[in-house]
Amino acid sequence: MLKMGVIRESSSPYSSPVVVVKKKDGTNRVCIDFKKVNKITVFDPEPMPTATDRFRQLTGSTIFSKIDLSKGYWQIPVREEDIPKTAFATPDGTYECLRMPFGMVNSGATLKRGMRKMLKGMKNVVYYWDDLLAHTETFAEHLETLMELFSRLTKANLTVRPSKCILGTDNVDFIGHSLKEGQKGLLLENVTKILNAPRPETKKQVRSFLGLAGYYREFIPNFAAITAPLSDMTRKGCPNRILWGPAQEKAYQTVRELMSRDPVLRKKLSGAEKNYSTMEKECLSIVWGIKKFELYLQGVKFVLQTDHKPLTYLNSAKFVNNRIMRWVMYLQNFDMRVESIKGSDNVGADFLSRVCE
């Protein structure tokens, strides 16, 4: 760090201790404990857009490039008058940080603000900490976006790590999800962790399991109800060692099963809905699916493909069925074109509908 110009020797009156943290791979990481400095630091908030907000921006994109900044924190210089406050003690003497250190209360906010300002006006680039994702619908547009992005990175004097960058792909992992051909799915690595992990036996282990599974709750219908037997066992007053019974086992196995299926969207028909006519069932699936993705479909043109030909007349036919009329009124809020396709071209949707019957 001294040779890289990240730190320098210091005679500052401040002196934070150094702690050694063991990483998952067994190696050690040297960190600075800025607790005392953080207590007297004025908090500088900078909100981070949620993952949901980020994915909403990706609607319609099919080409992606993932850019990873090289040691993002260290690329931001510390203001000269603040450098002494970053001082830390080692057996070899006291040093202070010339580049922004990890662990200070406002380091994260500073990084996020810097990214936001650098990317201002670029609609086809989103960020999450020091990860950047360029996304477009066409290759030509993608090249223009990358040219602009690299130009801004150069002006900001920021460098990237080539070994971690992925350019011009239709399949990329971002914020714990898999993006492929314009669709968001479960990240195989995390699903594998859940499926291969031993059954949790303690409160801490159950919370960890629920935390990871909960990140993908949008893919697990009725997640809260399904996992209630497990959540109940982590409440205050319950023993640390989980009393594993039939209800807990069923909840655990149900979550694992649903995650391993990984359909993008599913709904089970209620008793009354099972009695609907074929036309009504097909129309119901369209209405429910559009409602589920309403945030993505509002204000954009899209094509609705169906292998049930009568539905191609949704926007022109006169229906006497009150239920279908209500649905048609709802669908008129969207700029969509209904297109008929062969049943043989719709095997994916047919398979998923049968899985959930």
Describe this structure in words.
There is one protein chain. This protein is of the alpha+beta class and 357 residues long. It folds into three domains: 7-180, Alpha-Beta Plaits, CATH 3.30.70.270; 188-261, Alpha-Beta Plaits (2-Layer Sandwich), CATH 3.30.70; 273-355, no CATH class. The chain is built from twelve helices and 14 strands. It has helices at 35-39, 51-57, 107-118, 139-155, 188-196, 203-214, 223-232, 246-261, 278-292, 294-297, 322-331, 347-355; strands at 7-9, 18-22, 28-32, 63-68, 88-90, 93-97, 125-128, 131-136, 166-169, 171-174, 177-180, 183-186, 301-306, 335-340. Strands 7-8-4-9 form a four-stranded antiparallel β-sheet, sandwiched between helices. It has a three-stranded antiparallel β-sheet with strand order 1-6-5, with no helix packed on it. A hairpin with a 2-residue loop joins strand 7 and strand 8 (131-136). Helix 6 (203-214) packs antiparallel against helix 7, helix 7 (223-232) runs antiparallel to helix 8 (246-261) and helix 9 runs parallel beside helix 11. GO terms for molecular function: endonuclease activity; peptidase activity; RNA-directed DNA polymerase activity. Residues 2-179 form the Reverse transcriptase domain. InterPro entries: DNA/RNA_pol_sf, Retrovirus_Pol_polyprotein, Rev_trsase/Diguanyl_cyclase, RT_dom, RT_RNaseH. Pfam families: RT_RNaseH (PF17917), RVT_1 (PF00078).
